[in-house]
Amino acid sequence: MTLLEVKNIDKHFGKKIGLSQVSFNVAAGHIVGLIGPNGAGKSTAMRAITGLMSYSAGTITLDGQPVTFSDHQALDKVGNLIEYPSIYPNLTAFEHLKLYAMDTKTPADFKDLMHRTQIDGDNFGKRKAKHFSLGMKQRLGIAISLIRQPKLVILDEPMNGLDPQSVHDLRNLIRNLANDGVAFLISSHLLDELQKLVDDVVIINHGKIIETATITEFFSHDKIRWVFETSDNEATVKLAQAHGWAVTTEDDHVQISGAENLQEVITAINTIDVQIKTVNTVTGNLEKSLLDMLATDDKGA
Asked: Whole-prediction pTM value?
């Protein structure tokens, strides 16, 4: 069931286009990754969805209710952590939750929420927020985003400042909430971590959506790539180009895709008397797939 519908949204900053005909949906219980380079429009889209920014055309609806800069009624069902959380330096974590729950009729259970977001230990319980690390503030911000027991949670860089164990625990928290029907829209530059979490991806570049797909569909278009270390990388690159294969070099390795299979590439390299030192097969990498897609989009712009 579609929970959030973003349809044909336009946003301009003077003559600069912030968003152009942006459309995508988020279903209940789904975790959606909003992905793109810096300045692509991710934060602008999130701010429009949370009613923090006006837009010149299009519609945004949440659970059938409109969301605009002047109509925030639907946002009672939304929790968000966009950029950095609003933290008051002289309040404890528990006092923050009490503060943010003041206008909520049915807030989440404080103790349970603090435990699930790992802000219930001694470091949080008695210390004021001005003494919190960046990671501690980030976990508190996530707890605040969940205080309303929302249907949709919007998170911008939620893993920022978290250690590997905390990132792992956050993934489990988000997945468990999604299993209970909560939807998530998440933007993160940590694509390897995002890849482990999301159900769907929305790719944005230059303010336009260039791809929407399930994570499985997204990777079904991903080409198998073979990474070679050879005795003559320059000759290997020329060989690949002569065969019409896609080829790049990085860190003294040659990456080739587009051939029918690995054996075809190895046979071709052997014909030019180049020694293959190592070879690895790579596929299903969100970062590489995104970079390839952005490169293609930029060429067509």
From this structure: 0.77
